[in-house]
Specification:
The protein is of the alpha+beta class and 497 residues long. Helices cover 40% and strands 13% of the residues. The chain contains 17 helices and 24 strands. The strands form ten sheets. The chain has a five-stranded antiparallel sheet. Strands 21-23-22 form a three-stranded antiparallel sheet, with no helix packed on it. Helix 2 crosses helix 14, helix 3 (94-110) runs antiparallel to helix 4 and helix 3 (94-110) packs parallel to helix 5 (167-183). It starts with a helix and ends with a helix.
Length: 497
């Protein structure tokens, strides 16, 4: 198994019920009175793009455009393969391709590229993935049974080294493909081809084959050893995967799958916010990049009186309060410096700082919740920006502060670099990135799977583009219905089918 897959397991285990954390602090704050489910009409009515000052609008425009260009500039236009990271030379990430497919229409709507350019790039991507080799060979294939390898060689799209066939990364690719199917809705031959390719890719995925321990879905499969001995379950970023699996017209999972998944939830208060807990913020954001959870609820959330959108809002507020309390006494933490998620880090080891030995990590799943805390002082701007729809009045000032306080050490060509650590100001040889004396450690890479949530969630807050198109996706609607979701826009979607 590759390092990134192992870290995914770390995220699942480190924040599971009863797990021990790398560092911990007691949960503070009393349980709050449950707020009602949020409707799509009023989630951010008080803080919209239109209400911003010109300078704030310019900041949002610039950040969104720079982030978009990561995908447009760096993706291979022949194959649609998007690099996992840059400028460090790397393999292609299947999940990053899913974000890229969603980025192209955003670029067309914003006027950074034309609709025709977005169409051509999308069509080339979908053609490549539809025609690429699918079999059980240990080398030379791109995927099997409709699933794709986590990482691909950038020159030909074949399996990178010994990585696993990844169920969640395939799901993120499919989310981008299905969004493309809904966006390119005109009668031209090119747009019709995009719709046909996206539909074919989705229908080919054999979810039942990947569900080796029903009703859960295995995290992956390897031609050498078969399915990985771990399943995706509980509350995390895999909600989109399970919804797409339930909605499949060809290889769907059983109707009780979602209910079984929710049995692994942990409801507890952290920093005054009662919520379904998961430490890294990406688990509260990824599925929301495509699914509009405002005002729709499954049986589990109906019993709690909130929806998943509100749950992610609470998780964001709790992380911000955690940084303000700052139990680890990390430099710069506060209401304008916060955001823990899976991201790069400076090194694996300990460094003495101010008479205290501190542990640091390279890429790992950082987070804070009632189940545990994994925090070495490394902040990811994507963790903040990915929560833009949930609490825009707090996210935007934070992003503006990060850009101003840390300047081009953190915010440059493609927007925010992946991570920084203001506590580590020297005295160490770092594995990655660089130390700026007096300011801290700064990553030198952008990561596709972090650039994606920044772009998509800003656009969802700004215009609702991705959400509005995905509300029309019959497979997603069906998956939500099978999972037992009710209310809001879903009821209207049922009546208009």
């Amino acid at each position: 198994m590759n390092v990134r897959a192992a870290l995914a397991l770390l995220a699942l285990s480190a924040f599971a019920p009863g797990a021990s954390a790398a560092s911990s602090a007691p949960t503070r704050g009393a349980t709050v009175t449950p707020r009602p489910a949020v409707s799509e009409a009023d989630s951010s009515a008080h803080f919209t793009y239109a209400s911003l000052r010109p300078a704030d609008r310019a900041f949002v425009d610039t950040l969104e455009a720079r982030t978009f260009h990561y995908f447009w500039d760096l993706t291979d236009p022949r194959t649609g393969l998007t690099p996992d990271r840059a400028p460090t030379r790397s393999f292609s990430s299947v999940a990053a391709v899913g974000f890229a497919l969603t980025a192209y229409p955003i670029g067309a709507e914003r006027g950074w590229i034309t609709r025709q350019q977005a169409l051509e790039r999308t069509r080339a991507t979908l053609r490549f993935f539809w025609t690429s080799r699918q079999d059980t060979a240990r080398a030379g294939a791109t995927g099997y049974r409709g699933f794709y390898y986590h990482f691909l060689n950038p020159h030909d799209g074949t399996r990178f080294q010994d990585v696993e066939l990844s169920s969640i990364d395939t799901a993120l690719l499919l989310a981008g493909a299905l969004f493309s199917e809904q966006y390119f809705d005109r009668a031209s031959a090119g747009e019709a081809e995009v719709r046909a390719l996206a539909e074919s890719l989705y229908r080919r995925v054999d979810w039942s084959w990947m569900s080796v321990r029903p009703p859960k879905i295995a995290l992956g499969w390897e031609p050498e050893d078969g399915p990985l001995p771990y399943d995706a379950g509980g509350y995390d970023e895999t909600a989109i995967m399970y919804l797409l699996a339930l909605g499949s017209p060809t290889h769907p999972l059983g109707a009780t799958t979602w209910e079984q998944r929710t049995k692994d939830y942990t409801w507890a208060a952290f920093e005054g916010e009662s919520q379904v807990n998961f430490g890294p913020l990406f688990g509260h954001q990824y599925s929301h990049a495509w699914v509009d959870f405002r005002g729709i609820t499954d049986a589990w959330m109906r019993a709690k009186g909130i929806d998943y959108f509100e749950n992610s809002r609470r998780a964001t507020l709790a992380q911000r309060r955690y940084a303000s309390v700052n139990p680890g006494r990390f430099d710069d933490y506060g209401p304008l410096v916060w955001g823990l998620t899976a991201c790069d880090g400076p090194l694996d080891g300990r460094v003495e700082i101010g008479g205290r030995s501190r542990a640091f990590h390279t890429y790992t799943a950082r987070g804070a919740c009632a189940n545990g805390i994994v925090d070495d002082g490394t902040i990811a701007p994507a963790a903040v920006a990915g929560s833009m729809p949930f609490v825009p009045e707090l996210v935007l000032p934070t992003l503006e502060h990060l850009a101003t306080a840390y300047g081009r050490d953190l915010d440059s060509t493609y927007g925010f670099l992946d991570a920084f650590n203001p506590t580590l100001k020297g005295g160490a040889d770092v594995h990655h990135g660089r130390i700026v004396p007096g300011k801290g450690w700064f990553d030198t890479d952008w990561l596709g799977i972090d650039e994606g949530p920044i772009l998509l969630m800003i656009e969802n807050w700004r215009s609702g583009l991705v959400w509005s198109r995905m509300r029309r996706c019959p497979h997603l609607v069906h998956g939500l219905e099978v999972a037992g979701f009710e209310g809001g826009w879903l009821e209207r979607a049922r009546t208009t089918r």
